[in-house]
């Protein structure tokens, strides 16, 4: 009798999943009403503490492996950061610009000063984004361990400024390169405790989705222009003007022009939002796949439909509450990320030690002044 040997394939166990959940809790609505009232009676001085309280609420709803995040920032830190930037940067810059406007007789000098100020502001916007994220990470705790960014905000600002110039010169075709490069800088500088995040990837896989977004938007613009020209050639607008009487021609022409502009914006916004969501879904999914923390890998299940729904819902909230319900928009964004982001791999919690990076003593002053990347 012949013995039969069955050679089985080795079974590779799937890496353990790391749960990431958003668990909403009551109180955000009451917090929003409280913030609205106190901002009103304090002439928005309370806004720094309002923002801090919203962050504390939303952070505490994010659970990783059933442990909530904790936000430890303080309103006074944000207020001091804002005042320092106003006093030592913005006011002197405004005074300098005003002086040149009053005393400079050469228009080229005035133009040069204004251009220089625009360049400085654009560069510092990138610096503000980096510093704001470093501040938030340093005030975010999970299991008592905080995060941070250890790189240079000025380096990030310079790279971002350079890519803005390149995108303008290339009709935005360097956008995927810019996004991957800037994300790589932020991720490479990011630490949780004493351990680094890493990103490995390039912009190549993003150019297919970007081409669809770019050419799709171009086609939408061309079709809308053709539609306007064809409609105008039928004489519809002339007929509307004729029935109003000669004295109302200018008024009616203005109304028609305004209505046409609104219609163009609306018609262009729909395909643009869909195409932009298509590209953004591909971009954030790709960036997530290339990110690692120790042996933990990430994946983002972002889709065009889900992003369009998110944009529409948040737009409705902002429109009908005049921006007063912005914390609910922020909550929707964080909940979307938590529901769509997955992580898997072995995480050796015992080996992660507290970050020794120096913490900023003030908050997001530049980001507050420039109104960028402030959550």
Helix content: 55-70%
Alpha-carbon distance between the two ends: 75 Å
Shape: globular
* Largest β-sheet summary: 11 strands, antiparallel
Number of folding domains? 1
Assembly type of the chains comes to: single chain
Determine the structural class based on helices, strands and strand pairing.
alpha+beta
Low-confidence runs: none
The fraction of residues assigned to DSSP E strands is 5-15%
Strand order in the sheet with the most strands: 1-11-10-9-8-7-6-5-4-3-2
Q: What is the number of helical segments per DSSP (H or I, 4+ residues)?
A: 12
Give the SSE string.
EEHHEEHHEEHHEEHHHEEHHEH
Mean pLDDT: 86
In short, what is this structure?
With 375 residues, the chain is of the alpha+beta class. It has helices at 28-41, 47-61, 75-103, 107-138, 153-169, 175-189, 207-233, 236-242, 249-289, 304-320, 326-340, 365-370; strands spanning 17-18, 20-22, 62-64, 67-71, 140-142, 145-149, 190-192, 195-199, 291-293, 296-300, 341-344.
Task: Record keyword descriptors for this entry.
375 residues; 11-stranded antiparallel β-sheet
Describe this protein's structure.
With 375 residues, the protein is α+β, with helices and mostly antiparallel strands. The protein has one domain (17-370). 63% of the residues lie in helices and 11% in strands. It has 12 helices and 11 strands. The protein has helices spanning 28-41, 47-61, 75-103, 107-138, 153-169, 175-189, 207-233, 236-242, 249-289, 304-320, 326-340, 365-370; strands at 17-18, 20-22, 62-64, 67-71, 140-142, 145-149, 190-192, 195-199, 291-293, 296-300, 341-344. It has an 11-stranded antiparallel beta sheet with strand order 1-11-10-9-8-7-6-5-4-3-2. A hairpin with a 2-residue loop joins strand 3 and strand 4 (67-71). Helix 2 crosses helix 3 (75-103), helix 7 packs antiparallel against helix 9 (249-289) and helix 8 packs antiparallel against helix 9 (249-289). The termini are far apart. The model has no long low-confidence stretch (mean pLDDT 86).
């Amino acid at each position: 009798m012949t013995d039969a040997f069955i050679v089985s394939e080795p079974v590779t166990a799937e890496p353990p999943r790391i749960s990431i959940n958003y668990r909403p809790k009551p109180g955000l609505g009451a917090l929003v009403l409280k913030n609205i009232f106190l901002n009103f009676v304090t002439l928005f001085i309370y806004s720094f503490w309002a923002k801090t309280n919203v962050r504390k609420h939303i952070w505490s709803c994010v659970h990783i492996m059933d442990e909530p995040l904790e936000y430890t920032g303080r309103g006074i830190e944000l207020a001091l950061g804002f005042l320092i930037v106003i006093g030592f940067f913005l006011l002197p810059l405004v005074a300098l610009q005003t002086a040149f406007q009053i005393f400079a007789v050469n228009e080229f000098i005035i133009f040069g000063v204004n251009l220089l100020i625009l360049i400085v502001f654009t560069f510092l916007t990138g610096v503000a984004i980096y510093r704001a994220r470093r501040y938030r990470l340093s005030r975010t705790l999970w299991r008592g361990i905080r995060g941070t960014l250890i790189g240079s905000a000025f380096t990030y600002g310079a790279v971002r400024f350079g890519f803005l110039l390149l995108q303008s010169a290339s009709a935005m075709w360097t956008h995927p390169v810019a996004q991957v490069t800037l994300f790589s800088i932020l991720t490479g500088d990011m630490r949780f405790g004493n351990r680094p995040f890493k990103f490995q990837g390039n912009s190549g896989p993003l150019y297919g989705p970007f081409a669809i977004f770019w050419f799709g938007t171009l086609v939408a613009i061309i079709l809308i222009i053709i539609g306007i020209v064809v409609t105008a050639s039928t004489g519809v607008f002339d007929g509307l003007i004729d029935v109003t009487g000669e004295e109302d021609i200018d008024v009616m022409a203005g109304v028609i022009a305004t209505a046409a502009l609104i219609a163009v914006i609306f018609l262009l916004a729909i395909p643009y939002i869909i195409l932009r969501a298509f590209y953004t879904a591909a971009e954030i999914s790709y960036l997530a796949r290339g990110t690692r923390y120790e042996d933990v890998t990430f994946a983002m299940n972002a889709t065009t439909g889900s992003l369009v729904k998110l944009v529409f819902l948040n737009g409705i909230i902002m429109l009908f509450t005049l921006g007063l319900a912005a914390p609910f928009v922020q909550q929707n964004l964080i909940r979307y990320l938590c529901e769509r982001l997955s992580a898997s791999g072995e995480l050796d919690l015992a080996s992660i030690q507290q970050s020794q990076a120096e913490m900023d003593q003030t908050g997001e002053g530049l980001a507050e002044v420039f109104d960028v990347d402030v959550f």
